[in-house]
Amino acid sequence: MQAAADIAQSYLGTKHKVIQPEIKHTMDGRTMKALVWFAPHDVRVVDVPVPDVAEPDDVIVRVTGTTICGSDLHLYHGEIMALQKGDILGHEFMGKVEKVGPNVKNLEVGQRVVASFQMACGTCEYCQKKLSAFCNNANKSSMQNYMYGQRDAGFFGYSHFTGGILGGQAEYVRVPKGPVNLLPIPDDVTDEQALYLSDVLPTSYHAVVDTGVEAGDVVGIWGLGPIGQCVARWAMIKGAKRVIGIDTIARRLALAEKAGVEVIDFNTDTDVVKKIYELVPKGLDVAIDCGSFHEPKSLAHKIQKTLMLETDVPETINEMLVAVRKLGRCGIIAAYAGYANGVNLGALMEKGIRLVGNGQASVHKYWEEILNDYIVPGKFDPTFMISHRVPLEDMAKLYEAFNTRRAGVEKVFVETDNSSPSSPGCPKTTRVDQWGY
Ligand SMILES: NC(=O)c1ccc[n+]([C@@H]2O[C@H](COP(=O)([O-])OP(=O)(O)OC[C@H]3O[C@@H](n4cnc5c(N)ncnc54)[C@H](O)[C@@H]3O)[C@@H](O)[C@H]2O)c1
Ligand SMILES: [Zn+2]
Ligand SMILES: [Zn+2]
């Protein structure tokens, strides 16, 4: 699939953009460690040149915290188009400002910052409204333009389909348009509290805010990974009366139950929709897809996906469309990429369902609010989801362990030689080889 995508991309040419993905290296020959994609299921930590400022708005960040996301597994499986051998992955990272370009006035060398997973220009019509996920100017992929008619913003470390910008699972990262894509972190917020402002926190918040969860709602959540766990907590903060979570991983079900979620194990209750109607006879007000489309349940979709007759699987979406009440809202935050067969369009149309809360989350719209209104006053502590801390040199092994969800791995704080020691109450450093099964 990657070779075909490369051929199609070079045939289509590239779209205009103001952010250049090409990087410049420091002239002193310094190298750094970075996680590099070679092929599906083959990622490696290798030494690569340290990036330098290439454009006047660039900031070079010395990484002090990075991580792996459920979305990285789509890359690991080769499910996202236009990955190239040599791409550095990673889109959630934070660190200290190492060097700034001449146009950068609001950031100082040494300042602690967190990066937005998407890279946006800060000036286009979407950016002016802080809708950074939809920036017009940061992604040159004509293939995305061809498939979707338009293009999203660029994403760090997420293939040439999303701009080909090198990622944050590295010791140093070049952040184009640094003043808009980096958020300064107050001294009293720890690295573990700040890191997830890159992605998980704005993503889960967006799913709840954009589907309009309000007091008295009954909310169903498919998938209780880090995103689903945070969605459940935000839904309660926004006043949901009941939250129902669907998954099959025992410890994820237990973690959600501890937070007050009513849980359904889809391997025990195989008819999820029937179970939901037993619990909520009038149907859900809101359904949110926080799952992963690479795990089809039915034989029909296993076959269609294997034969590449569909890239994505609509099983969760169909369950949501049937389980919501008439005029209910369905939101898709799970990162689908292409086509799925057999979507229940009848239910969508006839029940007047609102499909909202989709899209990549616009980090710039939400991150200051989450930091100032929830993290600083202690109303939302993201460290509940951190299960492990490992050094960057273990990153390739971490992909393997994360893919099989070994040893209870949830969100991981990945440290570099520049990280501070772990904060009180957060996991201490371990090596992936020492983890059990
Ligand atoms: N839109 C965005 O801005 C954005 C950002 C980050 C992540 N994401 C996406 O959000 C999704 C969740 O991320 P995560 O890090 O929590 O992923 P994850 O892989 O850790 O969790 C997904 C969970 O879904 C469960 N699941 C799989 N099939 C299911 C089904 N049929 N019914 C119910 N549950 C099912 C799995 O058991 C797993 O626990 C991923 O698809 C990820 O790509 C989107
Ligand atoms: Zn992510
Ligand atoms: Zn823009």
TrEMBL record:
Residues 56-186 form the Alcohol dehydrogenase-like N-terminal domain. Its cofactor is Zn(2+). InterPro entries: ADH-like_C, ADH-like_N, ADH_Zn_CS, GroES-like_sf, NAD(P)-bd_dom_sf. CDD domains: FDH_like_1 (cd08283). Keywords: Metal-binding, Oxidoreductase, Zinc. It comes from the Eukaryota. This is GroES-like protein.
